[in-house]
Design goal:
single chain; 343 residues; alpha+beta; 6-stranded mixed beta barrel; 18 strands; 28% strand; globular
Length: 343
């Protein structure tokens, strides 16, 4: 079995799905979560009337495991993902998985697929995808009484193939990702379905991603694609406060690091015009950590907010990026207790 390892070209992994050895599952039936089951089957046996398929009772998370220089495997902030999944469950009325059970499943699936965790030098990592779905058969619009929690993993390459670099973004007003009192703060598939058209349009226009304004007034910065936005000016880390933005665990971590680096941190509404004043800006999330923003174009108003004058990531973004990745890979001390070492 282990000779297959030679076939994985670690240096050229994309952000895609690769079959691994095992996934894990926990079912919720008769009001209780059952035992953890290990499966090597990639398919789910699902009733055609399952609520996840009809009424969108579906939530997911995304996190990563990293192999350090010391050979140890570290998972970044898994309790935060567990808590966010619980928050999503409250939002769309699904059975809440206890944090301990989430942790048990994540550790198990990472250990079982250890041979797929990329070596340290590659800058690649093991992407972990927890999924929770309503499985009971219903045609009435109400919450399911049975749920399935599934976790699979797949190795993924580094986000920045040619090194840490900036990207252009475009403001799209035509489509909203979510409403101010909608599901934007929850990690449900529907938000992503709602972003596909805007994303396609941004790509067709030659941009790396779309940029959303708040759905109600179209005045304030919301999110960039599927990532949180932050801007830096006057030694301050500024990120939007809004009721339609997913609480990014990466953003939360960066706010903490920025504060400890001596920056002020502000979470508040950010009007579009303020984009003109930022010295640096970035989109942040699990995939890239930070994707620095080169410029943000507002085509309808003929404006271009050029953030990076030289087209390179700024010094603060670079420092934050290196620090966070350093903690994830074990190159920097984890003084925050963010990392779980897989024993």
């Amino acid at each position: 079995m282990h000779n297959e390892m030679k076939e994985i070209d670690w240096a050229n992994l994309s952000f895609g799905y690769m079959k691994t050895d095992y996934n894990v599952r926990i079912n919720f039936r008769n009001g209780a979560w059952g035992e953890l089951e290990v499966s090597s089957e990639e398919y789910l046996n699902l009733h055609m009337a399952a609520t996840c398929l009809h009424y969108g009772q579906e939530a997911f998370e995304g996190l990563k495991a990293f192999r350090g220089k010391d050979g140890k495997v570290r998972i970044f902030r898994l309790e935060e993902n567990a808590a966010r999944l619980q928050s999503t469950c409250q939002g769309i009325l699904m059975a809440e998985l206890p944090i301990e059970r989430f942790k048990e499943a994540i550790l198990k699936v990472v250990k079982l697929n250890e041979r797929f965790i990329p070596p340290y030098e590659t800058g690649a990592s093991l992407y972990i995808r927890p999924l929770l779905i309503g499985t009971s058969a219903q045609v009435g619009v109400h919450p399911a009484n049975e749920y399935m929690f599934v976790v699979f993993v797949t190795p993924v390459g580094p986000y920045f193939k040619g090194g840490f670099s900036t990207n252009p973004y475009v403001i799209i007003r035509e489509f909203d990702r979510s409403a101010p009192l909608g599901t934007g703060i929850y990690k449900v598939g529907g938000n992503y379905a709602a972003s596909l058209r805007a994303n396609k349009k941004a790509h067709e226009l030659g941009y790396s991603c779309e940029f959303y304004l708040d759905a109600k007034e179209k005045k304030y910065i919301d999110e960039c694609g599927a990532a949180n936005f932050f801007g830096i000016k006057d030694n301050t880390y500024i990120t939007p406060k809004s009721t339609s933005i997913l609480p990014s665990i990466t953003n939360k971590s960066l706010m903490q690091l920025a504060e400890d680096m001596g920056l002020k941190v502000e979470r508040r509404p950010v009007p579009e015009e303020e984009l003109a004043t930022f010295e640096e800006a970035g989109a942040c999330g699990t995939a890239a950590v930070i994707s620095p923003i080169e410029r943000i174009d507002d085509l309808e108003n003929g404006k271009s907010y050029v953030i990076s004058k030289d087209g390179k990531p700024g010094p603060i973004c670079t420092k934050l990026y290196n620090k966070l990745r350093g903690i994830q890979y074990g190159d920097e001390p984890d003084t925050y207790g963010w990392v779980t070492i897989v024993e």
